[in-house]
């Protein structure tokens, strides 16, 4: 399997600067499943020279790695690398974010998830961050329950709590709910989202609503037989009485 794809995206906005993005995708020939092949390289660059890129590779049957970095014009802004190991009934992963040996700063995140039953998995997460004059560790416990057509997750820790629920109603409709509480910000939020696919019309509808009364909607339409996709989006913040809308065209 070998796939190369390029796309062009033009964004027009009355609130900010309009932009153009060029994207490219490469999928290698190492087949690991019916719909999986590695390595995968994805990247895009805008008209100012800012770049987002990531590389994903299946090193062995159990070890997968990912490297991602981001630049803002000529400066490196963010980069991270992670490795994931899948055992018979557990998953362990470690992530390094913006490590700098000379300055002595960076972030390390370790995950461990153990399958208790075929549907239930329990584990934890440890986050360690350090920079000049500041150092800290945050630990949290996590759980995930997987059903035939839904997934529920819950994370509890010193920084707060996070819960999510995803439900696939049918081949066309997907729903999701997310809850987040932060002890540092003293704030809680709930958001709801959905995605409706209409394959016969080449249409995808996406919508969202959160507890801050921010409503968003997006419509994506493939303009067959041309290699074009049209996206229309709108967001309304009821509390701040702000409305935004726009459209984009993707070639490829």
Helix-strand blueprint:
Elements: E1 3-12, E2 19-33, E3 36-46, E4 51-58, E5 63-72, E6 75-86, E7 90-100, E8 105-115, E9 120-131, E10 134-146, E11 150-157, E12 160-168, E13 173-182, E14 187-198, E15 203-210, E16 214-222, E17 228-237, E18 242-251
Antiparallel strand pairs: 1-2, 1-18, 2-3, 3-4, 4-5, 5-6, 6-7, 7-8, 8-9, 9-10, 10-11, 11-12, 12-13, 13-14, 14-15, 15-16, 16-17, 17-18
Task: Give a written overview of the molecule.
The chain is mostly beta strands. The protein folds into 3 domains: 1-80; 87-146; 147-251, Porin, CATH 2.40.160. It has strands at 3-12, 19-33, 36-46, 51-58, 63-72, 75-86, 90-100, 105-115, 120-131, 134-146, 150-157, 160-168, 173-182, 187-198, 203-210, 214-222, 228-237, 242-251. The protein has an 18-stranded antiparallel β-barrel. A hairpin with a 4-residue loop joins strand 4 (51-58) and strand 5 (63-72).
């Amino acid at each position: 399997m070998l796939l190369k794809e390029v796309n062009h995206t033009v964004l027009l906005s009355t609130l900010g600067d309009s932009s153009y993005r060029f994207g490219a995708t490469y999928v290698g020939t190492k087949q690991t499943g019916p719909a999986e092949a590695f390595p995968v390289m994805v990247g895009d660059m805008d008209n100012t020279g800012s770049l987002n890129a990531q590389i994903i590779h299946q090193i062995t049957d159990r070890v997968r790695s990912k490297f991602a970095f981001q630049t803002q014009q000529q400066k490196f802004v963010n980069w991270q690398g992670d490795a994931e190991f899948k055992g018979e009934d557990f998953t362990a992963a470690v992530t390094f974010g913006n490590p700098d040996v000379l300055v002595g700063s960076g972030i390390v995140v370790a995950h461990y998830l153990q399958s208790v039953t075929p549907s239930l998995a329990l584990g934890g997460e440890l986050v360690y961050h350090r920079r000049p004059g500041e150092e800290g560790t945050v630990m949290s416990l996590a759980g995930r329950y997987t059903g035939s057509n839904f997934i529920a997750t819950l994370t509890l820790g010193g920084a707060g709590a996070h819960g999510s629920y995803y439900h696939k109603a049918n081949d066309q409709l997907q729903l999701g709910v997310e809850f987040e509480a932060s002890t540092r910000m003293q704030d809680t939020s709930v958001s709801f989202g959905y995605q409706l696919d209409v394959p016969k019309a080449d249409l995808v509808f996406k919508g969202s609503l959160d507890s801050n009364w921010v409503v968003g909607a997006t419509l994506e339409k493939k303009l067959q037989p041309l290699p074009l996709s049209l996206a229309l989006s709108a967001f309304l913040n009821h509390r701040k009485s702000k409305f935004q809308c726009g459209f984009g065209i993707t070639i490829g």
